Every structure is written in C-alpha cells, then in structure tokens.
Amino acid sequence: MLKGKTALVTGSTSGIGLGIAQALARQGANIVLNGFGDVDAARSQVLAAGEAAAARVAYHGADMCRVADIEDLMKYSVSQFGRVDILVNNAGIQHVANVEDFPVERWDAVIAVNLTSAFHTCRVALPAMQSANWGRIINVASVHGLVGSAQKSAYVAAKHGIVGLTKVIALENATTGVTCNAICPGWVLTPLVQKQVDAKAAEHGLSDEDAKKLLLREKEPSMQFSTPEELGELVLFFCSPAANNVRGAAWNMDGGWAAQ
Ligand code: NAD
C-alpha cells in the first residue's frame, strides 16, 4: 500500500514510534528512524517487519530539542530516499511534578521535544509535500491533548498545543493532498509509562501488576492498555485513501478516558 513512499518517524527507537515504524514498513514504506537508546535493535525490528515488502531503513540521531539537528534530519531523509511523504511526530518525554515544584529546565525540555520539534519538522517537510500534492502528517499527541491531569503541566500544555498546531496545518493545506491529524492515546505500556508505574508501586508499596491496575483504574474505563501495534494500524488508516478527507482530527484511542 505504501510502496515508494518514505516515512520519517521521530522517536522511533522505542515504544509507540517503533510500533508505528514497523506498521509503515510492513506496508512497504521506506523508514527513517530517529531517537536514542538501542538503535540496532530498533533497526532490526523495523527491517524484519518490512522484509516481505522490501522496505529500506535509515537512521538519524537528531536531538529533537535542536533546530539545526531537525533541519539536518530532514536533509538526511531526502538524501537517503528522495523525499519525506509521511511525517510522524512522535518523540516525547514526560515529567511529573506540581507546578510550584516543576524544574524550569524540565518544562523547557518537555515543550521543546513534545511541541516545538513538530513545528520545525512540519515547517521543513511541508514545501515538498505541497509540491507533490500528497503528504501525511500524523502528530502523536495524547489524551492529554484533550483533557488535563494533575502534575503534568508541561506535558498537557505541549499536547494541547500540538492538537492546535495539527488543526492549523490541516486548515492551511485543506484544499491540497496534504493532510494533518493527531492521535490521542490513553495509557500505552511503554518505557515512558513504566516509569510512572514504578513510581506508583514505590509510593503505595504495590506490586508491578497492582500498580498497573491502579494507574488504569484512575483514568481508563476499559482497564486496558492500548498497544503500539494498535496505534500503528491507526496511522495506516490516516495514510490510506479512505482518510483523504480526514483533516485536523484529534483521534483518541483511550479506552473511554476522554468520554468521562
Ligand atoms: P518512549 O519513551 O518509549 O519513546 C520515546 C521515544 O522518543 C524514544 O525513541 C526516545 O529515544 C525518543 N526521544 C526522546 N527524547 C528525544 C529527543 N530529544 N530527540 C529525539 N528523540 C527523542 O515513549 P512512548 O510512550 O512510546 O511515547 C511516544 C509518544 O507517545 C510521545 O509523544 C508520548 O507523549 C506519546 N504518548 C504516550 C502514551 C503512553 O501511554 N505511553 C500515551 C499518550 C501519548
């Protein structure tokens, strides 16, 4: 379905981004990976997912806090595969503290990675998408782009911000073949969330399993984590012809969290 297309997925060495990169590779898209940590493991998982479809995989280690790195990432992607047709803004970090205790540098980092980086990737990716009259921008927001939670000021501000940015980019390109949408997951059991599970277990003296149940019970009526694989399938829908006129949506996959 996506043979001949190139997808850049930021923060794709782990968790949701890795799941999305695998789903896109399975459909034949060439993939540019980005992120920190175990790059080789991520690369082989995405290569394996895309093997039958002969998808190619490249990697760039841009720090999404740095504008020069982001511009270099886009140049590198074009040099590897000719262009970027699908841009998934997924890189994200979290910090949990009340506003009065929130370290200023953590605020700046969360806003830079979770929001400002997407402005820069879109800014540099859009001209080529507009010339080709085809492009898909998918911003990985969060249910926290729709509702708030205590102790997550920077994250909630960044995620509400990226939902707003999504709408504006969708409107600016509404008469073209370039669409922009956001996805809004509830809990997904990735390293980012495992840290919060560990904090709950330590705070309440709970087992890992009971801490997960507590986390889910507080917010997610389905009592189930979504998976990177399910989110990958949602991204494939946005890339499909059926989604040609889905523009500026903030699509939740949150087990009923935002329905309450
Ligand atoms: P994760 O920690 O597993 O993955 C985050 C990825 O971002 C990693 O590849 C990491 O290396 C990369 N990254 C972090 N800082 C970076 C930087 N400065 N430059 C480049 N890459 C950087 O987390 P995840 O849960 O998979 O989160 C992915 C996205 O999904 C985030 O935007 C997050 O806010 C969002 N999200 C997660 C959940 C959840 O429950 N896990 C829910 C809603 C939204």
Describe the overall structure.
- By secondary structure, this protein is of the alpha/beta class.
- Helix content is 48%, strand content 13%.
- It is built from 8 helices and 7 strands.
- It has helices spanning 15-26, 39-50, 67-81, 104-132, 153-172, 191-204, 208-219, 228-239, and strands at residues 6-9, 30-34, 57-60, 86-89, 135-140, 178-185, 250-253.
- A 7-stranded parallel β-sheet has the order 3-2-1-4-5-6-7, with helices on both faces.
- Residues 11-17, 34-37, 63-65, 90-93, 113-114, 140, 142, 185, 187-188, 190-193 line the site of nicotinamide-adenine-dinucleotide (NAD).
Q: What is the overall shape? A: globular
- Measured distance between first and last alpha carbons: 37 Å
Structural class: alpha/beta
Cofactors and ligands: nicotinamide-adenine-dinucleotide
CATH architecture of the largest domain: 3-Layer(aba) Sandwich
| CATH class division of the largest domain | Alpha Beta
Instruction: Give the spatial strand order of the biggest sheet.
Output: 3-2-1-4-5-6-7
What's the quaternary structure here?
single chain
User: Main beta sheet: strand number and arrangement?
Assistant: 7 strands, parallel
The number of helical segments is: 8
Pfam families: adh_short
Keywords: Oxidoreductase
GO molecular function, one term: 3-hydroxybutyrate dehydrogenase activity
EC number: 1.1.1.30
